[in-house]
Amino acid sequence: MSHAIRFHRTGGPEVLQWEAVDLPAPDAGEVRVRHHAVGLNFIDTYHRSGLYPLPLPSGLGMEAAGVVEAVGEGVAGLQAGDRVAYTSGPLGAYAEARNIEARHLVRLPEAISFEQGAAMMLQGVTAHYLLHSTYPVKAGETILVHAAAGGVGSILVQWAKLLGAAVIGTVGNDDKAVRAKALGCDHVIIYSRERFAERVRELTGGAGVAVVYDSVGRDTFLDSVSCLQRRGTMVSFGNATGPVAPFDCGLLARSGSVYVTRPGLLDYIATREELQARCAALFDAVGSGRLRIGINQRYALRDAAQAHRDLEERRTTGSTILLP
């Protein structure tokens, strides 16, 4: 008998339950993975709350790292004992072990720990597609990263600096400002004390930034658009404060013929080849030490509800993992 976090109704963290579950032998094309670490991401709170509706009851969680225990018929290239990680497929990573289609798994290099693997798959692959595909950042450009001390934000800042960009980061308090500066931000704005749109214009001599990476959503969207230079790009990739309200498209013309996009991870790892290429780039950057994955919080998996509370109340920085 294995255990997993499941929920039977949407709501606050209190709906998460630690349950015993049956785990049959893997079906054809599936692999059973024994998790060593599970990633916590803000999208998990959207699934739990009902912002992103799911059939209920449901499991939770999109990424984990562990060891292959068994393989189903027709699985090639994986065997018991292999170290693996994933960040796609059906929800259900909040579990001691699970069956998952082999096509979602990538081999985890020996140089990368299970904890790093679980902490960086979704956030790191997201940072890769945002910086290299959604808007390919170029050396010499100035960009704005909201929640710069958070999970995705902390990776975005470091990777953008590797690409030669100047980075303005926003954070909520002084402790997070120190962290964002240490990650490489050229300028840090504490949005609770400063109007970030006005400050961005000051820092750029009135020009604005080439791109804004915004995971905050409703509370920052309009001001983020106003930070852009002519024909700049607004990348809204999260809803930490709620979904962005409908707006008049004329705003884009009035703001300098700017672009707005709302990307999603699955569209950037839609093929096996794309998934492997992004993971290879991430593993290389982390394995070489050029990109640091800050695991700043660890919780027992059965304490996932408390982890959700802390995440939603902005008590966390960097990456957070759940330990089965």
Automatic annotation (TrEMBL):
Residues 11-322 form the Enoyl reductase (ER) domain. SMART domains: PKS_ER (SM00829). It comes from the Bacteria. One of its GO terms (molecular function) is mRNA 3'-UTR AU-rich region binding. Pfam families: ADH_N, ADH_zinc_N. Coiled coil: none annotated. One of its GO terms (cellular component) is cytosol. Keywords: NADP, Oxidoreductase. The keyword Disulfide bond does not apply. PROSITE patterns: QOR_ZETA_CRYSTAL. The keyword Methyltransferase does not apply. InterPro entries: ADH-like_C, ADH-like_N, ER, GroES-like_sf, NAD(P)-bd_dom_sf, QOR-like, Quin_OxRdtase/zeta-crystal_CS. This is Alcohol dehydrogenase zinc-binding domain-containing protein. The lineage of its organism: Bacteria, Pseudomonadati, Pseudomonadota, Betaproteobacteria, Rhodocyclales.
